[in-house]
Amino acid sequence: MGFKVKDISLADQGKLKIEWAENHMPVVVGLRKLCEEKKVFEGKRISAVLHVTKETAALVRSLKFCGAEVYLAGSNPLSTQDDVAAALAQEGINVYAWKGETEEEYWWAIKKIIEEGDPDLVIDDGGDLHATIHKEYPKLAEKIIGGTEETTTGVIRLKAMEKEGVLKYPVIAVNDAFTKFLFDNRYGTGQSTIDGILRATNILLAGKVAVVAGYGWVGRGIAMRLRGMGARVVVTEVNPLRALEAVHDGFDVMRMDDAAKIGDLFVTATGNIHVIRKEHILKMKDGAILANAGHFNVEIDVKALEEIAISKRRIRPYVDEYKLPDGRRIYLLAEGRLVNLVAAEGHPSEVMDMSFANQFLSLKYLLEKAGELAPKVYKVPAEIDEEVARRKLEAMGIKIDSLTEEQVRYLNSW
């Protein structure tokens, strides 16, 4: 076993965090207990690039207890919880992750879990692992049974790979499961993004004009929670259907050009590059705060902000003040990276319970279907989605109705 973490002496603290998470992740823990005796992943090597949090720990520990040898790297240079990484290393997970990695260290860790891990299955969050395997380890890609993808950005990249005919193994888009995006993207990111902003700034949201760029499931969740905290929410969009939905949900919708002039707080959630650009920054009021909730640090043009500022200083942890030539101050949170994972702890355990249950069952499905699936991007099978929902309801003590035979016949008849 190998590892590289910030400080292995933090392991005891990390174990307590993991215990807390697992107490709130009954579906993942239940699946672990179900599959542990059969060792469903016995002899399989799994390499994963995920945010190294207490919730991720619940997933990778479950895979290990069910027989897998797990290799783990962080999917963001600033999102690793160092005490959790130390606890995992002490438990026999091959983990290479620490908070504050340089770009070079970030890519080193990913290559480390590929080369050392020699995986049969891969788990990714953002697509960097899949892309690196295909670009730099093509022979390995040909022998991989399959993989999963956790987030919207990664699914977009994988579908582009499939379209270009370069994808070499089947990938299940866990992000597209109903029990993932309806809850993780909306309620998880909605709450944790607000948590990150408040931990970083301690501002009052009530009365502020908050601009949310993007009205996908992540944007919906953020807008909903900001409104719940009393903010006056503006949505910017490029998709007319989503813009129309935002209007009917009661939000003001306008172009970023116009929103830039009135916003107090800006949150990007699009998965696209340079949503907030130089021309927008130049129109912002003194004290405007910029935060990003998209996977990569490309949504805010940080380079342009650096170029137009005459000074920069770290005014609070994860808050950088940029002074413009006319004296206006713009505040960037978390260096433009995922604010919920850099300045806070990421999604609550309860919502990651469903996301990681999908990961667990999707990997099991890939093993069961080994050699049968073409190298394409697949949806999570409906039976897995429904099983996760059913197990979550049971854990919450909620019972639902079932169809009578008469109702089944009626629905199946024309």
From TrEMBL:
Source species: Ignicoccus hospitalis (strain KIN4/I / DSM 18386 / JCM 14125)
Localization per Swiss-Prot or TrEMBL: Cytoplasm
Record Pfam families: AdoHcyase (PF05221), AdoHcyase_NAD (PF00670)
Cofactor(s) the record lists: NAD(+)
Name of the protein in its database record: Adenosylhomocysteinase
Residues given in the record as substrate binding sites: T53, D125, E150, K180, D184
Keywords: Cytoplasm, Hydrolase, NAD, One-carbon metabolism
GO cellular component: cytosol
Pathway annotation from the record: Amino-acid biosynthesis; L-homocysteine biosynthesis; L-homocysteine from S-adenosyl-L-homocysteine: step 1/1
Binding-site residues for NAD(+), renumbered to this chain: 151-153, 185, 214-221, 237, 272, 293-295, 340, 347
Gene name of this polypeptide: ahcY
PANTHER family associated with the record: ADENOSYLHOMOCYSTEINASE
S-adenosyl-L-homocysteine hydrolase NAD binding domain residues: 185-346
Cofactor binding annotation: Binds 1 NAD(+) per subunit.
Gene Ontology MF term list: adenosylhomocysteinase activity
Family membership: Belongs to the adenosylhomocysteinase family.
Residue spans crossing the bilayer: none
CDD domains the UniProt entry points to: SAHH
Catalysed reactions listed for this entry: S-adenosyl-L-homocysteine + H2O = L-homocysteine + adenosine
InterPro entries for this protein: Adenosylhomocyst_ase-like_sf, Adenosylhomocysteinase-like, Ado_hCys_hydrolase_NAD-bd, NAD(P)-bd_dom_sf, S-Ado-L-homoCys_hydrolase_CS
Main location: cytoplasm
